[in-house]
Each structure stands twice: as structure tokens, then as C-alpha cells.
Amino acid sequence: MEATQSSFILLVLISSLVSTFAITPSPSASNALVGGYKPIFNITDPHIQDLGKFAVSEHNKQAKTSLKFVNVIKGQMQVVAGINYDLVIAARKGDIRRNYLAVVYERPGGKNKTLTSFKSQLNGV
């Protein structure tokens, strides 16, 4: 009987430890929390540059302007039900180069994008 009781106590103790570790979030899980903005470190990534081109193209259609995309200078991203990209974009109108702030929402899967904001950045980068 005492061996059975010891086995039971050992089983309860092991179960408690396993359940404690099973519900404790890992450090990488806390880094992937939804909602916060994270910097984009590889700003030259072709996908990021394509998002900048998309933002300028959509802005040109909506505002009936003729900006020419130069490059994405910096940005950050926010994971929501998809990804919000908050980008600083360099674009030209004739000989004048100016920086613009754009927000592009990309739906899960990356196939559909929406320009949600585009405005001139008056004070530089």
C-alpha cells in the first residue's frame, strides 16, 4: 500500500511540473505578440521595397499624382489579422525628392494589400 501511495504522490508531482512548463510562454512566444510595432531590420528586402512601390502606385491612382518611387528608407511592422507596414518612402515628383509616410495593410497570405494612409513627411526622416 505504501508503494502505491508513493507512486501516486510521484505521479501527482510529475503532472504538476509538466503542466507548469506546458502553460509557461517561451521567450520567443512573447516576442510574437499581436499588436505591437517591431522595426523592419532588412529594409532592402525585395518584399518591403515592393510594398513601397505599391504604396506610391496606389497613392498616384487615388490622388491623381505622378510620384516616382525611389526606395523605402525605414519601416516597422505590426502583426494584426494580417500585417500593417508603417513605411518611410522616398519618392520624386520631377526633380524634387521628398519623404512620405505610408501605411500598407497586407492580409494573411500576402496576396491582398490596401493602402490605408499616405502623407508627406515634412521634417525629414
UniProtKB/TrEMBL annotation:
SMART domains: CY. Residues 1-22 form the signal peptide. GO terms for molecular function: cysteine-type endopeptidase inhibitor activity. InterPro entries: Cystatin_dom (IPR000010), Cystatin_sf (IPR046350). Coiled coil: none annotated. Keywords: Protease inhibitor, Signal, Thiol protease inhibitor. It holds the Pfam family SQAPI. The keyword Secreted does not apply. Residues 32-121 form the Cystatin domain. The keyword Transcription does not apply. This is Cystatin domain-containing protein. It comes from Aquilegia coerulea (Rocky mountain columbine).
